[in-house]
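Inputs:
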Amino acid sequence: DSGVTQTPKHLITATGQRVTLRCSPRSGDLSVYWYQQSLDQGLQFLIQYYNGEERAKGNILERFSAQQFPDLHSELNLSSLELGDSALYFCASSVGASPIIYEQYFGPGTRLTVT
Amino acid sequence: SQELEQSPQSLIVQEGKNLTINCTSSKTLYGLYWYKQKYGEGLIFLMMLQKGGEEKSHEKITAKLDEKKQQSSLHITASQPSHAGIYLCGADLPYGGSQGNLIFGKGTKLSVKP
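Outputs:
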């Protein structure tokens, strides 16, 4: 158990809908990362927050947004869902801001299925 | 194009055998990580390498980052069924001087036959 929690574990929704994925980082960790993992694309970095501020952006679509709250939990919002958004979404946390200094601990993931 | 190439894509070994997985980049790596993933589950951190020539070991797993910092290898000695899973390498490949563009390889699927 990494100490990172994600809810829900599974989510099934229809195209065009909007969903929110939630992540609670390990106690004491200030950074939260979001990733998308699909069979064809592999693991893709979406976005990083550090202590409430956006720190780095990867391959995140404009239909997706995220935020980190004062209590450091984070939410990833996915809107106008398409079939291709079906994937495993992971959250990871680390104590510091730099990904080359501080190791990341991954949550168990949320499996999103868009029908 | 894939920035981090892992080889092989999959590997089946007999229990007790040694094996090596490689991760190659066309750009200088500013920190490289190795993770293990069981199918459909989260990633488990194995090791992070930051300096050229660095080598780290944990139990029967050893990882190295070459001097030019463009390739890393993960070596498992005397493999066991518990080593089975997908091994992913990840790295920070800065673009235009900004950090944070984290890239992962597509993974190497390891099966260990008892």
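Remarks. The two ends of chain B are 37 Å apart (CA to CA). The longest strand of chain B covers residues 85-92.
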